[in-house]
Design goal:
It is a single chain. With 236 residues, this protein is an alpha/beta fold. It folds into two domains: 2-93 and 194-232, Periplasmic binding protein-like II (D-Maltodextrin-Binding Protein, domain 2); 95-192, D-Maltodextrin-Binding Protein, domain 2. 35% of the residues lie in helices and 23% in strands. It has eight helices and ten strands. Helix 4 links the parallel strand 6 and strand 7. The longest helix has 15 residues, at 206-220. It is globular and about 55 Å long. The two termini are 29 Å apart. Residues 1-12 have low confidence and may be disordered.
Length: 236
């Protein structure tokens, strides 16, 4: 179905330009290209596209996507604010954002963010969880990177630190390989999230490319190749 739908289009334009930045294990990890990068490349190639990925800082990448110089940036969460400017692919992979803490604090639970007001809470600038927590009157001690935020947690400068779960465990394994047992997560997630392509509305033929991509993705996630990518990064 994809070939029939896109054959005329692909004869004239079969290259797509994407951007991302380092955010292991999703992109540019030591174990390969990263989970999402491998999925995106495979899906496009199955649909007959040649893929060019340009590494750019996140904000610059967003700007170039909006201006139509680049088809899409990944991995991104769809939000109401972003949907005013960009289109989004179907979900590539799902994960969660969680609070991390040191196991010496015992077992921490919560029902609402207000239950955590007595804790010093850290996190990383730019994440969707920030307004959710701050609206409860909780002031966050934010860091520019996950590495910096996790270091604050390890040094005891904060009690809890909010992170994308897989990213945080990747960093903990890298920075504190013999001390992984000292870290825990609160079982209740802050957010459950789906990562997607954030797509330009100004890139040539963007809506048709997105439609083809989504059809190819739907088929790809049912294959052993998709399972193999997840197994490679210990997610299956």
């Amino acid at each position: 179905m994809i070939t029939l739908l896109s054959s005329t289009f692909l004869n004239t334009q079969n290259k797509v330009i994407l951007t991302t930045h380092d955010w292991p294990p999703y992109t540019a990890s030591d174990n390969g290209k990263g989970i999402v990068t491998e999925i995106v490349i495979a899906v496009f190639e199955k649909a007959g596209f040649e893929v060019e990925i340009i590494k750019l800082p996140w904000l610059r990448g967003e700007r170039n996507v909006n201006e139509g110089e680049i088809f899409a940036i990944f991995p991104y969460i769809s939000t109401d604010n972003r949907k005013k400017t960009y289109d989004f692919s179907d979900p590539l992979i799902s994960s969660s954002q969680n609070f991390f803490y040191l196991s010496k604090l015992g077992n921490i639970t919560y029902q609402s963010f207000s239950d955590l007001r007595n804790f010093a809470i850290g996190g990383v600038f730019g994440f969707a969880y920030i307004p959710l927590i701050e609206r409860e009157g909780i002031e966050l001690d934010l860091a520019p990177t996950d590495e910096a935020a996790i270091a604050k947690l390890y040094l005891g400068r904060v009690d809890l630190s909010a992170h994308e779960e897989l990213v945080a465990w990747y960093i903990i394994n890298k920075l504190y390989p013999g001390k992984i047992h000292q870290f825990k997560t609160i079982e209740k997630p802050i957010l459950k999230v789906d990562y997607r392509l954030m797509v330009s509305r100004n890139y040539p033929n963007s809506k048709q490319i997105l439609k083809i991509f989504n059809q190819s993705l739907k088929k790809f996630i049912k294959t052993n190749a998709y399972k193999s990518v997840l197994k490679k990064y210990k997610l299956y």
